[in-house]
User: Fold these one by one.
Assistant:
Number 1:
Amino acid sequence: MNMSNNAAQPVHIDRVRKTFGEFVAVRELSLDIEAGEFVTFLGPSGCGKSTTLKMLSGLLPQDSGEIRFGNKRIDMLPANKRNIGLVFQNYALFPHMSVAENIAFGLRMRGWSRADKDKRVEQLLQLVRLEGLGNRKPEQLSGGQQQRVAVARALAFNPDLVLLDEPLSNLDAKLREQVRLDLRDIQRRANQTTIFVTHDQVEALVMSDRIVLMNKGGVEQVGTPYELYATPATEFGARFVGANNLIAGTLDKSSGAIQARIGPETVQPVSTHSNNVEKDGMDIWYCVRPEHVAMRPQSSAGHFGGRVMDKIYQGTTVLIDLDVKGLGTVRAERPALEVGDLGVGTDVGVHIERSHAVARLG
Amino acid sequence: MTDITNTPSSGLSAPDAQDQGRHVSRRRLRREKTFYRLLTLPALTIVGLVAIVPLLLLFVGSLRDQRSGLFTLDNYVNTLGNGFFMRTLATTIAMAGGVTAISILMALPLAYLLARRTLLRNIVMPIITVPRMLPFVVIGYAMILLLAPMTGVANKVLMGLGILQQPAFILFDWPGQAIAFAYNGIVVATAVLTGVLMSVDTQLEDAAVSMGASKPRAFFAVTVPLATPGIIAASALIFTSVVTAYAIPVMLNGRVPYMVSLLISANLLTLQQQNLAYAQAIIVSVLALGVTTIGQVVLSRYGQRGGDK
Amino acid sequence: MSAARLRLTPAIFFGRAALAVYLLIMLLWLTFPVVLVLLASFQGTLEVSFPAPVSFDAYKTIPPSYWEAFWFTIRAALLATGIALLVAIPAAWAMVRGKLAGRRIMSNLVLIPDVVPQLILGIALLTVFIPLRLSNSFAGVMLALVALSLSTGLRFTEALLEGLPDEYEQAAQSLGANKFTTFRLVVLPLIAPGVAIAALFIFMQNLITFELLFFISGPSATPIAIRLFSDIIDRGIVPYAVAMAGILVYVAIAFYTLVAVSLGPKYMAGSVMSRKG
Ligand SMILES: Nc1ncnc2c1ncn2[C@@H]1O[C@H](COP(=O)(O)OP(=O)(O)OP(=O)(O)O)[C@@H](O)[C@H]1O
Ligand SMILES: [Mg+2]
């Protein structure tokens, strides 16, 4: 049976804006989403993720801007005419209806025949692997099962777009890991254009085709998980996604190559995200991921001198706080096997394998 | 690699299309508001016609001279300058205040026990709820059965025990009324205070006890202050119900004490001084609403701890 | 802590005894009206004695006018409850969800009949009902009760809707339901149990309303409470009136049981009933 959404259309969000009185909740947000794409809005609490979803779904009118599915403008339609599936943080399954009735609700609103409805509900129960539970009431399901019913309900009527607002935050850690793979899998099989909201960066990295990194109502960066991780565009991105050592420095382009100058004598090559880090001499953060801090025997050449200050064992890896000459305190994360019984106080050579620069403001 | 653009997309989002879209959605929002307004309309109409307009007319009537129909403050001046009315009002207030105080004092320990002992609460709740589902008249009947001079149970028992030599004639005097009001007051106070005390965290009291306070001391030092908003709310409820009570004063009345509701109805029905009665009714409502409002203000000032939860 | 409490010093003993006496007195005090009315109604006399033969004479002699008043009250109370809820539920929904300007004012206006003393509202209604020929009529009594029930009903349903997360309605809308369908298929079923309880309380309140109806009722429109009242004024206490009072006690007990059963034993920590005197 073909589960995919054949009529999938690209989604265009064009300069959408929302204010609450003086407060700007969402600043001119523009984004084009391909049909079948899985896009995640990632950002800290209060940055306007839910507000954006509410505007897309029609539950909150935007102040300006427009939203289109393909060529069709939908932002003037009421929520019930938009053909958008919504999954809420607490699922909002109708407690007085069975699982099947919940899933069929959108079909019922669209006047599907009894037989078609039953068939479609069966399909979806299969898709979310809840066969045979159609007659249960939502309260008789576990949290993970409820979550999947909510997803099935939002997919049932072949929506043009599915919006999920932190749908995993009510699950315990173990289940969350399982469900995010399930969810990703369901989305792929249904070829369903999807926007997912989370403030958990791991979730975003694992699940998304692309991530929209948001902060204070604005977009900081849009890119694939790899791009966000490897080449953050802003200080916020460098701090928010993954662990990072941020060391104040300036940009040095005097030699032609892009380099970071830290303190009087240290100069290191860096990558940058885009043309916003370009001016020679501008203030930058020199960013180093802990896993790119390698340690060598002290004797070898081409490295900084450093000393182990603290060591935190985490199972497969060890966090090591190093005092590095010319850089200051730097945290490294190395495989436990490699670190061995390296003691606190040991002098080591420190090699920076990769580094990146973002603009430093203020 | 970035899709964020500040250039408008082609075709559809030309400025006029943008305007048109905003126009459409604004019209939709207006329609929605109208829909909601329509839903409130029947309720507002009914209350308007069956409460607000009559009350306004009552107020206007209170400002008119009965014979000439001219606007005047005479009804108020005459009422407030009338010694009999003022004495009656004072009696009523004294009765209401006394009943309120007694009701709260009697009910508070019981409410405390009910709030802390689930079993007792489950037994007693029906006992205090059923009377509240009875017309006050039925309580009046019970008062007569209890207190009637010759046939009343109380007199018979007390005389049988030799405590009384002759029957006490309290039924059609102020004690009879006070007892009837206090009955209702205690029922109301117990119900309200139980709810309030249940929402006071028992751990606070335990904390006080652990710091060396005796149980009663902890009760008065910790629980009572926390329950004060509830006590005030219950007091306002009891006070106003006594001030504006009608059935009990008439049923159990032997002219003493003359309650203000009787005075108003006498002016209205028998003495045919409607406009005067209106003014008096307004004065009594202002008193009752004033007390209720003070209760509400205190309640909101001192936090939401009380109330129902 | 409990070890200390177990030691029975004289002070604790007397404290306990005083508490027990207090509790006994309060329980006697709280139960006496119901007990006395029921005893008297089964003795057929106006004097409660003990022991006494049980007789149903008082019940048998309840005159038709009493039954008329009884059913009159039931009819008016029922109709008023129905109308009030029919009007109050949509209004409450609009007020809670509609984001209307002046919402507080509107809901306070609807609460007026509940806030103004019943005696005063009754007098006010009398002044407009006389020229409209509504005093001393079923319609008049019913209308007055509708106003009162509307206040109570709105307060109940507003609380119910405020307690209902609006995600359910948003979910329904996103699935394609319009406002009306959302209300019918989602809101109404979800608040129905609460509304049923509210209906019971409003009906009961209508049944016992006295001061509001005293001035606007009359010989051809007499609620049972007023019937009982005027008989005691005209005739003094009579056995069949006590029997009718007994019947009202049964109604109250039946209602209490109904509510207690449907809400479960934990209910009524004062919340529902404590709001009104
Ligand atoms: N109705 C409203 N009125 C006023 N301010 C609002 C309203 N709704 C949201 N806000 C504000 O807008 C900002 C963005 O809210 P939003 O719910 O979109 O955040 P979020 O990114 O979803 O955060 P979270 O991760 O906590 O859910 C917040 O600062 C919030 O306080
Ligand atoms: Mg949110």
Number 2:
Amino acid sequence: MVMANIRVVEIENLSKRFDSLIVLENISLFVSRAENLVIFGRSGQGKSVLLKCIIGLMPPDSGTIYINGRNILELSLNELNKVRKNIGFLFQGSALYDSMTVKENLSFPLKKIFPDMKQSEIDEKVKSTLELVSLEDAINKMPSELSGGMKKRIGLARSIITDPELMLYDEPTTGLDPITTKEISELIINLQKKLNMTSIVVTHDLICAEIIADRAIFLKDARIAYEGKISDLTSSKDLFLKNFFSNEIIHAKEESIKV
Amino acid sequence: MKLPKVKYGRRLSYKEYLFNFFATITGLTIFNIEFIKQAFIPPYEIAEVKKHMDELGVKTFGIVSVTGFIIGLVLAMQSQPVLARFGASDFLPGMVALSVVRELGPVITALIFAGRVSSGIGAELGSMRVTEQIDAMEVSAVNPFKYLVVTRIIATTMILPILTIYVIIIALLGGYLAVIIVESMSFEYYRFAVINSVEFGDLIPGVAKTFVFGYIVGLVGCYKGFTAEGGTEGVGKASTSSVVIASLLILIFDMILVKISLWLWPTLG
Ligand SMILES: Nc1ncnc2c1ncn2[C@@H]1O[C@H](COP(=O)(O)OP(=O)(O)O)[C@@H](O)[C@H]1O
Ligand SMILES: [Mg+2]
């Protein structure tokens, strides 16, 4: 249930540029508690940059970012880390630690965020989280032994293992076949319901967005070009949106024929 | 920590090379200061340091053993006829020992260590950087500089002196082999001659400078890896440039440290 009155993330007039390349300009958006916001955009439109600004990995040039009412840009590193402990982040490339096994990958954030947790509790939590993503068997594997879809799921497991209130997903389904895409999207929505998470999902995948989104934003030319329900965006008469979504649909159909 | 950006490209102008040179020096200095700032703040991640030391030891043990042995052997083989020409054959064990202890052992071990370890660290941290693993650590509220960089620099600084002492011993054994190929000399006598000619004042500056060399290897590898960018190509560049810079710095610091030690202990000269 979306609680519209509580804003977990609120961004005002965020701008970011690299040298002469303007990536984000005056972006303002919010996400309410337990809401799933999907951010659309073609590649290179600054979606990853936006997520990195939100978690404090990249400083914006101007603007403010409030998470649970605190402006994270004004926090000390210690304070920022406290905020981060309540946030999960799924990286575009999964970013699994490739010198560690799956088990060590999942234990790592637990050990760092809950230093007092007992080893038996950690093992238990790792096991139950792997069950959530149906990859119990992979527990002793190295990341190099996993397929792309499995990596995404382990990445997902690692980012939710600390039970964060806010989840940021960077293209959780890009590059996966439509069936895996569906599975991962359903996984995300189930987790979200179960743990009552708030999420921001960056994607250009319509299948994923249709399953997940409560509300969607469309990034184009460094600005928010459209905002609304997925159904509003897909049925829009706007030429650009029509073009974008029809391509996505054709693309998805081709993919499913191949499978 | 704000580091100057090194420019990449296939064809750099001289001006850009010069810029890169100063950017690297500045970057290393900033990295160095950051290390000093962070090394003394808990948590100390002692388990990580131990793990890295173990790995480094295993990784370099074989190659330094072979190199050490050959260095001692060849040095003795080369010196033997020269000393014989001057009628100074008796000085052979002492000469080998002094060369190995004071200069060859420390410097060659350090250069090999740089080739093996700087590149390894550069590639490892570089690939962690470009695949966002370092960002992932930061998101888990871990300070990646402390966890990845500080632990590695401490490990390289601690392990190189140990390796050096080991190499010195192996090289002296190699030297003995060269000696007994040509003439008969009991091991007892060889050992006696070696120990008699090497003073504590020879060993201390020789081994002490390897702490600096180990530090250089860790620092350069970590700096190059941590600041890598541009996908797999960037990782390769981080790895190779680490070796080049670390080796060069080792030789430069060797020169400086030898000068300082001769100034501190003039009797050595
Ligand atoms: N660290 C960086 N330095 C310079 N340019 C960057 C950096 N990160 C991203 N960019 C540029 O910003 C733009 C947006 O990137 P990104 O957010 O990754 O796009 P996407 O929407 O596909 O996730 C791209 O043109 C990219 O080249
Ligand atoms: Mg992206």
